[in-house]
Records
---
Amino acid sequence: MSDGQYGILVVEDDFRIADIHRAFIEQSDGFYVVGMARNGSEAKAIMAEQAASIQLILLDAYLPDVEGLELLWAIRRDYVHVDIVMVTAAREVETISEALRGGVFDYLIKPIEAARMAQMLARFRREREALANRAEMNQDELDSVLARLKPGETSRAKPQTLPKGIDRLTLRRVIDALAEAPDSLTAMQMARTMGASRSTARRYLEFLVAEQAVSAELGYGDVGRPERRYRLLEAAHEWLDAL
């Protein structure tokens, strides 16, 4: 991990899809691309050289030299610290079932919506941060990390505890700003509205994405570069009131 960021290896034989993954990751707070592999051999070579820098692998099920599931089990055996997300067009229940038995962090079916990818990355970061430097957890804490409770519910009716660096007043300001905006906003636009730094605005926006109160998508700025844009979802105010 570099400077508090999580390294990702993209394993995808279609260079166009791989480039889309790269662009999205580069726009996602807390993540960077360590390498791009077009087949199983390249993926194994990158892992052999840079495994310590990789925390997450985006893995296609269809590769020219190996079955994605075969590579999944090999990575599971040799690199227990790495999480794997299947990003594939494979919809067969047999494939999905084996991937789940292999302990994948998530399973995304192509074509992938940007909001769904954003949700996965935000959840990955939240779980990794929640587990860092912890010796043990109780059931309530674990349920919160795994997000196994229904939206708006909390274990034993306890109020939800916001993570460090997130407060309710600022959350309401962010939600209100998105509600009043005529279109989706970038983190920089939100920062100007809040009178805060871009990193602070992005931290709040990504937290809301993880809580499914805000959606995120890739758009293009004035210079043609992709940028991450945020849009309020209908349930956002109800979610905030339930805190």
---
Amino acid sequence: MAAELEIKFYFAYTSPFTYLAMEPAYALERDYRVRLRFIPFGVNIRKVYGGEVDQRDERNRRKLRYLYLDARRMAAERGLTIYPPKQIYSARLAFYGGMCAEDQGLFRPYAERVFERFWRRELAVENADELAAILEEIGADSAPFRAYVADEEAAAKPRLKACFAEADRDQVFGVPTLVIDGERFWGVDRMEWVRRKLDAMRLRR
């Protein structure tokens, strides 16, 4: 049997469109001879949308309101809940938790819980104890995560910076972005194009 093709999936837990793209991405592994590699990517929301929430001009406020309207429309079609956050959050600690879950073969259940609870406003995504509790809930050892948090410079930050450097080499500028054989696909609404490419590569199972 031919080896599975790696698809890079650049993501952020604080991106509603990444949340919406997760299940369609998992479906690619079911339907094609591919393997997803999830890579954290940090988006500077303040820079992109004009600073803190109360600093944004009317144009950026309208743009964000519309983007969340679209996200909630898409979510409603699939029975998902997306409540727009009331402030800008850092996903750094959640990324560390995802790395530890991935190392233990438990990335998917961890990611599913982080996404669902964050977008229902049931998770303080910057709270290490709440993230550790999710790791323990899915049967993962939370000790490596707590070690990451206790001394970020030792391993966690270098690992995250390596992910950001890889994103830069792949010319990624936003999430979700899938990279297939060097070609980028940005946005949940590009999944049909992704499938067409995989079909053209004769990778359907």
---
Amino acid sequence: MNIPNFLTILRILSIPLFIILLSYGFYPLALLLFVCAGVTDALDGFLARTFKQKTTLGAYLDPIADKLLLSSSFVAFSILKLMPVWLSILVISRDVIILGGILVLLVNSFSISINPTIISKCTTTLQLLTIGLTLLFQVMQNKYIPLHLVYWITGLFTIISGIDYVRRGIRLINERERN
């Protein structure tokens, strides 16, 4: 167990506490924990690269930690009526479709490497920004700051990214059938 993997596991273990804080309206503490999760995400990647501590476990755990935090945040925010339900449905549906596609490819013995694209990285950044801004505005107790534009942009990028992953999966299947 190295420090980057420990930080990633710590991030995963902090998710229930984050959801509990949200559920009870402790938004300042939830925001602090969310920021800490972001810092540990950046830190574990930096440490793994700098000290050559990249591991197979870390390569799997890091994106899982990100998806767990984002998915649980979007669901909780929707349940608490802090953001539109449609956005959470888009975010969760995209991830389920991607996971389903990966499982279909693996079951059919496709060799796949999961490398995030620019659009995927932008989508993740926008999703994190959406969660962070929504929390920040709750802490500021300003419910009149319109985040609708942020929600729509995040939704649009989520759709485009999902379509891109589906397109990439279909291309893999078509390439195999041609050979």
---
Amino acid sequence: MFVLAKPEEYGKLASLACGLWHDAYDELFGSEQVEYMTSTMQSAEAIAKQTEGGYLYFFIVEGGQTIGYCGIRPEGTKMFLSKLYLCAEQRGKGLGRRALAEVAEQARRRGLSSVYLTVNKGNERAIRAYERFGFVRADSTVTDIGGGFAMDDYIYEFKL
């Protein structure tokens, strides 16, 4: 299900991210903020820089078709689940649950104690999915992301 993205595929990954983020967030944030976020955080260059800092990016592949992507980074005793996006037509099929299970397995293989993530407080669909999987709300945070934008997020954690 997870296929590690190679440096020469970061452009393809950035293009996929742009479409998935606009689909997921235009109604929540507005297209101007989504465009800012994808151009600064999910461009091929930004992805390359993040991987230099320990991030791992994966294409999510099902039946030979790329249906989403995931970004994770080990941090001390925890795994940070930075990104997990599926194409809209693939949601509701249990694939998100399988992807979360794969993230947990990636953390277990590294001997880590938990997986944590941030999710926008208004992203009710994602919050429901994380809670159904077993993530528990641990905290909240507001982060200035530049460009006059901020993220108002919950922090969720899944103990392994």
